[in-house]
Specification:
Helix content is 27%, strand content 25%. It is an alpha+beta fold. The longest helix has 15 residues, at 183-197.
């Protein structure tokens, strides 16, 4: 975990208001000099000492480049005005703790790291990510404090096909492949995690401007601010529908009639057991009935053990 590396780091981040974030970044030595090229909404302008304020006057997007004649560029910033996401490129020596400290110093909440390999198979893959102008997921991502709220549940972190690192200050860093693996091996290790973490029907990230697969209908109970969804016998609840439910819980938590929890009530106990693991991962309540008709909740006594892929176990042994 503390191995020092030298790579071009491509990352994107959000958390603080974009103007505040850009000023913090621009105050660091590596980005404090006058850039060579400044582009506002795809129109090039002459950089000046007030380049930060010029960027924030853009309507949609800005790009700041210090070394435009080098490919890939070793220093670059791209900002997305509407979403508040700032992407950056930096050629730097790094390890995981120093990346965490860098993120903390900028008061970030969500970080996505792109790939470390400059070859065709990584560029041509069907990438997953967080949207909003974030880079496509590569070797890792990071959740800090409230950034965890964008997940369907914190349980998601412990049970994915990735290596999870915990740091003080409520920091969760997810590593998608062995950082010492060759490009082909790393891609094979990373793709299941990209699919499970990024925006997909089976993913655990709740995107901005969420698009529901179908309407989430249930009985709202004002007393405990829950939405109760009754499931007919033999009905299968897809993972996309589970993600819809988590999005309702996230986006309606501050409504006049807030939804604090979603309860799925299965008429048949076997149906409840069949859905238990995936719903438990998302902290969706699972209810069913006993033979004498008593309604019972079954997810509270479910405690599965994480089952990481073999490469994760190998990295852990090496680190120990």
């Amino acid at each position: 975990m503390n191995k020092r590396r030298r790579n071009i780091i491509r990352a994107s981040a959000s958390g603080s208001e974009l103007g505040t974030l850009l000023r913090r970044v621009a105050s660091r030595d590596e980005f404090s000099s006058l850039p060579a090229i400044l582009s506002l909404d795809h129109n090039r302008v002459s950089p000046s000492a007030t380049w930060v304020e010029s960027c924030l006057n853009a309507r949609r997007r800005f790009q700041v480049d210090w070394m435009p004649d080098i490919d890939p560029p070793p220093r670059l910033l791209i900002g997305h005005i509407r979403t508040g996401v700032l992407a950056g490129v930096l050629d730097v020596e790094w390890d995981l703790p120093c990346l965490v400290e860098y993120a903390r110093s900028l008061e970030l909440q969500l970080v996505a790291f792109s790939h470390l390999y400059n070859d065709r198979q990584w560029h041509e893959r069907q990438g997953r990510g967080f949207g909003d102008g974030h880079v496509t997921l590569g070797w890792g991502c990071m959740f800090i404090g409230k950034g965890h709220d964008r997940l369907v549940s914190r349980r998601w972190l412990e049970h994915g096909p990735w290596l999870l690192h915990r740091f003080p200050g409520d920091v969760s860093l997810v590593q998608f492949h062995d950082l010492d693996a060759d490009s082909e091996t790393a891609l094979a290790q990373a793709q299941p995690g990209h699919h499970r973490m990024g925006i997909s029907d089976e993913g655990g990230f709740i995107q901005t401007d969420y698009v529901y697969s179908e309407d989430v209908k249930g009985i709202y109970v004002d007393e405990d601010q829950t939405l109760r969804i009754v499931c007919a016998p033999r009905r299968t609840i897809s993972q996309a529908e589970m993600l819809d439910a988590c999005a309702v819980r996230y986006y309606r938590r501050d409504d006049a009639d807030p939804v604090r929890q979603i309860c799925f009530i299965f008429i048949e106990p076997e149906d409840a057991k069949r859905h238990l693991h995936e719903m438990w991962l998302r902290e969706l309540e699972v209810w069913t009935f006993t033979e004498d008709g008593k309604e019972i909740r079954i997810d509270t006594d479910y405690h599965p053990q994480p089952d990481p892929p073999s490469w994760v176990r190998g990295v852990r042994v090496r680190e120990e």
